[in-house]
Design a protein that fits this description.
The protein is α+β, with helices and mostly antiparallel strands. It has one domain. The chain contains four helices and seven strands. It has helices at residues 6-13, 35-40, 62-76, 105-114, and strands spanning 15-21, 24-28, 46-50, 79-87, 95-101, 119-123, 130-133. Strand 6 and strand 7 form a beta hairpin. The chain starts with 5 loop residues before the first helix and ends with a strand.
Length: 137
């Protein structure tokens, strides 16, 4: 796997990954556990996926990319919830995303690759959220 550039890694670490599950917001941070998320998802593995801004380059096609990801998730059979990647720093736009329950890391990384993402966020019960690179060398 290719490493994530230091500046992008810093930006990903300085982001709140917020999902709305049954109308309640849940904030996720890389490296942190989320007992609330563990309870709500009943211990299922999860991933936080976006189709926006492939390669971390701003795209004018984010809305159509998001809808393509939504259709893929609808056909996958996984439960998914609306989400946003919200940067701590001004100047970066929030990215519309999805929190996907019950998806394997391998499947989530493959979806990330399909949509040109540098990385995805994944987790499982009792463990901190992890950033997983999607790019190949």
């Amino acid at each position: 796997m290719k490493q994530i550039a230091d500046d992008l890694l810093a930006a990903y670490l300085a982001t709140t990954y917020r999902a709305w599950v049954d109308g309640a917001p849940i904030d996720i941070r890389i490296g942190a556990n989320s007992p609330h998320l563990d309870r709500i998802l009943d211990g299922k593995v999860w991933a936080f996926l976006s189709a926006s801004n492939p390669g971390s380059v701003v795209s004018p096609h984010n809305e159509s990319r998001k809808e393509a990801l939504r259709r893929l998730l609808e056909h996958s059979g996984h439960s998914f919830f609306p989400a946003l990647g919200i940067p701590d720093e001004p100047g970066w736009e929030a990215e519309e995303s999805f929190l996907v329950a019950g998806i394997s890391e391998a499947e989530a990384v493959e979806i990330g690759r399909r949509f040109g993402q540098n990385a995805i966020l994944a987790g499982c019960k009792g463990s901190p959220a992890r950033l997983l690179p999607c790019t190949k060398e």
